[in-house]
Amino acid sequence: MTSLTGSLTSGLNRGAKFLALPVYKSIFTKELKEEPFCGTLNLVISPEDAELVGRLFDSAHTFDNLVNEGKPVGAIATLPIKLSNGEHEKFSVIVRPLLTSHQSEIIEIVSSICFREEWDLEDGDTLTVEFIE
Asked: What is residue 102's DSSP assignment?
């Protein structure tokens, strides 16, 4: 299995706004098979790992032509992963908005839990991402 490590970083605080939209909430509920936490977890990864993630997204599940309350919203792509910190692990998905202000070295993770609270995480903590094929 392909895996990488990343360092936890604070995000732009926009994930909650998007995950609250019914169209995105529905997608992630189906992807996760449970309701998503209303926020994302952001990891900083190496430039080499960013290239790997970019290649994986070339064949990722893409959701486009999305509409929320009659208005078009941004397309996204998702990759299923297992996220772990050595003590816990959780099925999650990496989401990549097709229009984003993040650098490619930042990945956004959606899950059903708030990792910072449930796993007692802080910026700088290292997590492992294992890609599910």
From this structure: S
Q: Report pLDDT digits (tens) over 27-51.
A: 999 999 999 998 999 999 999 999 9
Signed CA dihedral, 131, 15, 32, 92: sign only: positive
Rg over CA atoms, the chain: 14
CATH code at 112?
Answer: 2.40.30.30
Reduced to 3 states (helix: H, G, I; strand: E, B; else coil), residue 60 is coil
Question: What is the pLDDT at residue 102?
Answer: 61
Could you tell me which of 20, 40, 23, 131 has the C-alpha nearest to residue 75? 23
Residue 91, domain extent: 3-131
Alpha helices (runs of H) in 1-133, residue ranges in sequence order: 15-19, 22-32, 47-57, 115-118
Rounded to whole angstroms, the Cα distance separating 102 from 58 reads 18
Predicted confidence at residue 126, as pLDDT, reads 98
User: Looking at the whole model, is its pTM more than 0.85?
Assistant: yes
- If one counts the domains in the chain, the total is 1
